[in-house]
Every structure is written in C-alpha cells, then in structure tokens.
Amino acid sequence: MNSKRGFSSVVFTLVVLFFYLPLVILILFSFNHSKTMSWGGLSFRWYEELFFHSRTLWNSVFNSVIVALSSGLISTIVGTLGAVGISWYDFRGKRMLQVAGFLPLILPEIIIGVSLLIFFAGIKLKLSLFTVFLAHTTFNIPFVLLMVTARLEEFDFSIVEAAYDLGAREIDALLRIIIPLAFPGILSGFLIAVTLSLEDFVITFFVAGPGASTLPLHVYSMIRFGVSPVINALSVVIIAATAVLALSAGNVFKYIVRK
Amino acid sequence: MKGSSIRTEKISKRFGSFEALHDITISINKGEFFSLLGPSGCGKTTLLRIIAGFENPTAGELYLDDREILALPPNKRHINTVFQNYALFPHLSVFENVAFPLRLKKTGKRQIQTTVEEYLDLVKLTAETNKLPQQLSGGQKQRVAIARALINQPSVLLLDEPLSALDAKLRQHMLIELDAIHDKVGITFIYVTHDQQEAISVSDRVAVFNAGKIHQIGTPVEIYESPADGFVAIFIGETNFITGTVREMADNGYALIDTGPIGSLIVNADKKVSIGDTVKMTVRPEKINISAEDPQQLAAHVNVLRGSVEEIIYTGFQSKYFVNVADTLFRVFKQHINCRLNEKSISWKDRAFIWWSADDGYMVEVVHR
Ligand SMILES: Nc1ncnc2c1ncn2[C@@H]1O[C@H](COP(=O)(O)OP(=O)(O)OP(=O)(O)O)[C@@H](O)[C@H]1O
Ligand SMILES: [Mg+2]
Q: Is the distance from the beta carbon of residue B194 to the nearest atom of ligand 1 less than 6 Å?
C-alpha cells in the first residue's frame, strides 16, 4: 500500500469517527443507569421512563407527525399544481412568479418565522397547532415547487399538445400525462416536505401555540433543564426508526432515481 | 371518401415583427395526399400548427368542409397530428399510447382491445404491443405515432416531417407504407417535408413554400416539369438555367433566344413573350444528351452545343457530367441503360457535344421589355 492511499484512509477513518462517535456515545449512555456522564452500569430505566412516564413527550411526537403529514400533503398538492401552471402555461409575470416561488428557499428561517408570527397576530389568528401546520405548509411549498419543476422541465411540451390533439381536455392531460410523468418529482417533494417539517425548530418556535409543542420544541425545552438521559433513549429510538424507514424506503428512492 | 377538405384563406402569421406566413391560400381536396414542401424555417410547421389549432393566425380563415374552424380548440377539430418528434407518451406502453384517444372517450374494454389491435396491425406493430417508447426504434416510434393519430378516425391527418429522423433506406420503406396506409384509410393527408424527393414521390399535389410564401401548387409532374419560378425549379431538383433575350419568334410557338456566348437557343414559348424580353429558361440535366461525337441527323428544334467535360461523377445508375460551354457549366445526367463499359466513354477534358429538344427547355421567368 503506498503512503498516499494510507493517508487518505486515515483521513476517511477520522471523518467517519467524527460523524459517528457522538452517536455511538449517545447510544451507549442511553443504557447507562447513572444520571450523570459517569458509567453506572447497564440499565433500561430511561427507556422505561420514555415509554411509560413521558406523556407530554409522546404528545409532541404525535403533534409532529400530524403536522408533517398534513403539511406535506397540502404543500405537495399546491406545489405540484403551481409547478404545472408555471411550466405549461404562458402568462404575464410568469418569470416573477417563478422567482417569488423560489425566494423562500434562501430566506433565513428566522425571518420567515418572525414574519409569520406578525402575520398571524395581524389577522388575529390564535397560535395553535393549526398555525404550525400553516407555517410548515408555507415553507414546504417552494421545495415541492423546485422538485416538480425540475422534473417537468425534462419533458417536451409537445406531448401535452399531442394529448390535446388526441382529444384530451386540460384535466385529462393533467391527470393522465403530466401527473404520472412528474410523479417521481412529486414523491421526492413530498418526502422532503415531511422531513423538513419533522425537524423544523426555528419557524415552529415562533408560531406554536400553548400545548402545540412539536418534538424539536419539546426536546429543546427538556434540554434547558439539563440533558436528560430520556433524550438519549428517545434519540436511539428515532435513529432506529429512521434506519428502518430508510431501508424500507430504499426501494422508493431507487424508483425515484431510476425514473 | 371519408376525409374532409381543408381550405386556408389568406392566412398570415406574425411573430413580433417577423412574418412567418404571408397570405397562404390553399385548397386541399377530400382524401388527397397533399404535401407542404419548402426549406427549413419557411413556415411549414407554423401552418400545420395553425391547422391543428395550436397556433392562431394573425389574419385569415380556415375551413374544414366549408366550416370555419379557427375558433375550435385542437381537441374539437377532427384533425390529428403526427408530430415532428413523435411526442409519444414516455410512461405508456405502445398499446396504451395507441389506446389513449379511446380511453378518453370511455370506450369499452373489449372495444379498445380490438380497435387498438386493428390499428397496430395496420402499422405492423403487433409484436411490440407491451414495449415502452424508449424501447422502440425510430421507425417503430413513428408507426406508433401514426396508429395513435389514426385511431380516432380523423378527417384529416397532419404529418410533420415524420420521416426526417430515419435513415435513407428506412425512409423509402416507410414512405411506401405511408402511401399504402393513405390508400387504405382514405382520409386527407397533409404531409410536411423539406425533402423534394419524398414530396413528389407520394403526393397527389404539392405546395412549394419559401420564406412564408407559396411559390407554386401543383401535381408533382407540374412542379417538376413546369416550375412557376427559378426557386421552384432549383428546389425541386437539379437543373440548368440559361438567361437570354428573345431575338425572334419562330413558327408554331417557339422562340429563338440570344444568350450571348452560348449562342442562339430555341425553346418552347410556354409563356407569352415578345421580341426583346429577357427570359430565364431551365433544362433538366436528364433531358440533355451527351456524346463524344457530333450527333448527326437530329430532328428539327434541337439545340446542340459543344463544350469540354470538366468533371464526371459516376453514381452507379447514372453518370453526372459537368460540361463547360463558353464558361457556363451544364449538368448532364446520363442513365446507364446498357453496361457503361460497352459505351464509348467520355473522359475528363474531352470535347463533348450536348443537345436537347426545344420542347425540353422551359421558360421559368420572363421580364417583359
Ligand atoms: N413561437 C415562435 N416565435 C417566434 N418565431 C417563431 C416561432 N415559431 C416559429 N417561428 C419562426 O417562424 C419561422 C418558421 O418556422 P417553422 O417552424 O414553421 O419552420 P419549418 O418550415 O417548419 O422549418 P423546419 O423544416 O426546420 O421544421 C422560423 O423562422 C421560426 O424562427
Ligand atoms: Mg418544422
């Protein structure tokens, strides 16, 4: 083995360690009996507490899932229709609308959060889980728009003309041609939306009403009183769930990439 | 005839300040195989898109069987299109592509099955039923596009350079099949091409376009043998142009043209001319004879010129000679009816005689004095 190869594999190992060592430690300490960072023997007590004595935490998980799925769904529908409209039709101000649609992607989250808060206060909408849903839908739409637009741009407009030519109405062309063709883009848009919604902290922080805590908010509030080992246990559960999801979703991603 | 007639009345189309079509008036008969022929960018696709309903003309009218249809959207016109790039639906199988128009009409399952099979049979694609478009060859894609466009039984089928993506051999073959399909379904075909060979070999009539204007509408023989102007003459095949002034009107409709260094030529006076008019005439290369020896005993009204052979291109079934006569290059195509090796051959730089009958010359343009 030459030294260049040796050097690069050392760097590689260090990088991997840097990424995964914290996770390994976290997993380890979730089985620690002691409440401090010193090893107090193997124990499942934090898992017990997590599963049987953490009602508010599970409540926030439930909130997060509800918001993620609903905002993911609505933003996918709105974003897809928006992308279709912008791509297939010609109208005045099309370019401007396109830019306006993508702008939130580069806007700092804190600005979106503050502006939404002011907006909700302005229209006298009480902060609740519903405002969280509205906020998440808002910041998710540009991502779906981006994914679907990218997909649609690969296709020649003449297939839509061909559909009209063969007797299709606009709704037929949309349902039978455009949506099926854009479907991989729509699906990845939806998955991104769900992920972003699940992990969002900053924007949610501004617009969540009392009792409408999501998982990231809840974890943050727990950490303020010191790192509870329950969080370690929760993290391990989430890592496991993510791994299972990623493995089973592998086929979905393969489908997206292949298409 | 099941087809419909199509008539355009002074159709013009502007894109901004650019005039893509100018006063296009064409009348296409029921069941006709009609070609729009012209160089790239002359407006053929634009006219086809106006007929299909994807584009609105700036001015003019469009009649389908004497009914004005410009206000109708594409899906209400009973006109279907085979697109320049086929435009097959990439996510649907061959069967589903062809079945698409029937599915829209909510046709019954069994009916769809039999009808699609019938049309796939018509275009000889029964073996590829379940393939996706990306698994097909160019010729097969084109057949799917044709079957899909025909299944609605339109009264007019528009074909936009459907063969341009195919190689020369396959193009010949598909052209013959297209002609057969046209005979079988009996509807009106409007066929766009920039290939004059394609246009004149299958069409009933051809409209020759250039830069958004129609130069001539006629049968293939008419546009080949009596082109309306110099553009049509040269676009429709190779030719020779000779310009001169009318010196004398000979008996029974011939004119004697003074062409300067080439000498006096006699030509059939196809157009009204009088002494002193400037005339541009054309002689097709295959109508000119060539030989190394002075041709004896020629009939009356034959032009004989003497020149030197500049170049010979042997193409198998014929040879192309380029003969210099007083610094004008004449193209002469000679068919090899007998084995070429048996003929007394003409070679480069040889003196040669070329001759053609006055009836084979044609006046394309006349400028009256
Ligand atoms: N949407 C448009 N906007 C502006 N100009 C256009 C548009 N569509 C066509 N043109 C112009 O109109 C002219 C005719 O175009 P058209 O597509 O009809 O040509 P064509 O005869 O079909 O050529 P080809 O044989 O290359 O397909 C071209 O000069 C083209 O640039
Ligand atoms: Mg074209």
A: yes
